[in-house]
């Protein structure tokens, strides 16, 4: 009788331990998902911020500068065209990120999305650099070579060059910070997916 009672209590203890282990595993999984989701939200936020800022520059800031300074129409079109082209990878990345669903997709599918996203980011850096350099060269040739307002006026030329350099320096500083933060968040997502893959086995 005592042996049966001991077996029964031992079985109950085993059941409780199993339930506790299941609960603990569920909590660990939820914590990893939350951390991964937080990093994902950060990347979404950063991309949305970049899109909004670029949109404001394209639609408000640069048109205002164009209407209040003697910038040529050709120069304005060059800069606007480059900024619009620069929006394409941003929108592409947001469309790809919208497919990221931690609850509805397996880790392999999510890892594939992250890999595609990284490829777009890598291509975007190269093309952005080429576009910006080409736009600056074209802008200066157009303005300093063909705009009669700037001919023989060194002070105006210095203002244009100075403002460009300041804008470039500020943009470079913000860009470096965003790239570092973005890289950290992307690594966190990849680590989270690697850890969550263990729960699928």
What does this structure look like?
The chain contains 4 helices and no strands. With 201 residues, the chain is mostly helical. The chain starts with a helix and ends with a helix.
Strands, helices and their partners?
Layout: H1 2-68, H2 73-97, H3 107-146, H4 154-200
Structural class, by secondary structure, is mainly alpha
Question: Quick one: biggest sheet?
Answer: none
- Poorly predicted spans: none
Q: Give the tally of β-strands.
A: 0
What is the C-alpha radius of gyration, as a whole number of Å?
27 Å
Which of globular, elongated, flat, extended, rod-shaped describes the shape? rod-shaped
State the helicity in percent bands: over 70%
Portion in strands: under 5%
Helix segment count? 4
Q: What's the N-to-C terminus distance? A: 41 Å
Can you write the helix and strand succession as a string? HHHH
Feature tags:
201 residues, rod-shaped, 0% strand
What's the quick description here?
By secondary structure, the protein is mainly α.
């Amino acid at each position: 009788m005592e042996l049966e009672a001991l077996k029964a209590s031992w079985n109950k203890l085993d059941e409780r331990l199993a339930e506790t282990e299941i609960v603990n595993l569920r909590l660990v999984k939820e914590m990893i998902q939350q951390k991964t989701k937080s990093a994902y939200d950060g990347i979404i936020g950063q991309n949305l911020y970049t899109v909004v800022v670029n949109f404001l520059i394209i639609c408000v800031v640069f048109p205002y500068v164009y209407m209040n300074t003697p910038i040529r129409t050709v120069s304005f079109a060059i800069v606007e065209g480059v900024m619009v082209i620069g929006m394409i990878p941003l929108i592409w990345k947001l469309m790809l990120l919208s497919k990221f669903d931690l609850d509805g997709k397996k880790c392999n599918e999510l890892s594939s999305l992250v890999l595609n996203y990284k490829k777009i980011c890598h291509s975007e850096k190269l093309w952005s650099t080429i576009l910006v350099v080409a736009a600056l060269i074209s802008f200066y040739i157009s303005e300093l070579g063909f705009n009669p307002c700037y001919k023989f006026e060194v002070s105006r030329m210095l203002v244009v060059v100075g403002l460009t350099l300041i804008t470039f320096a500020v943009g470079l500083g913000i860009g470096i910070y965003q790239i570092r933060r973005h890289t950290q968040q992307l690594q966190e997502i990849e680590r989270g997916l690697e850890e969550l893959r263990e729960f699928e086995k």
